[in-house]
């Protein structure tokens, strides 16, 4: 059986560790990084079942970041977990093709877990 995989991109180290633990508890292999600068060639050629990421990174607008992730990393589902809770940004991102979920912080880990189960 093939191992499910997830890429986690979070600048906030505490959030990174919390989400990494959730992903690993679901039986996924997990690559956890704090920015796109940490991607390597294997990351760009892998096909992840989930990418779970923030959208607040210095020097890039949230919508641009999502478009960039979708363009450079193969994946099945993209989930946003962010401190940016602005409804208009959430609506614009959820309207983008390929975005499976948007969770503003604070959030309930069970909601993310339920969403992951739905796509397994």
Automatic annotation (TrEMBL):
SUPFAM superfamilies: CheY-like (SSF52172)
Pfam families: Response_reg
Domain Response regulatory: from-to ranges: 5-120
Keywords: Phosphoprotein
Domain of life: Bacteria
4-aspartylphosphate PTM positions: 54
Name this polypeptide is given: Response regulator
Organism from which the protein derives: Salegentibacter chungangensis
């Amino acid at each position: 059986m093939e191992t499910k995989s997830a890429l986690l991109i979070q600048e906030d180290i505490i959030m990174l560790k919390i989400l990494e633990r959730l992903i690993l508890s679901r039986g996924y292999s997990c690559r956890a990084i704090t920015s796109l600068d940490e991607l390597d060639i294997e990351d760009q050629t892998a096909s992840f079942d989930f990418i779970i990421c923030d959208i607040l990174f210095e020097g890039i607008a949230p919508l641009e970041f999502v478009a960039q992730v979708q363009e450079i990393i193969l994946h099945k589902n993209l989930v946003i977990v962010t401190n940016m809770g602005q409804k208009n940004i959430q609506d614009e991102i959820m309207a983008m093709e390929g975005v499976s979920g948007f969770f503003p912080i604070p959030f309930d880990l069970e909601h993310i877990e339920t969403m992951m189960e739905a796509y397994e």
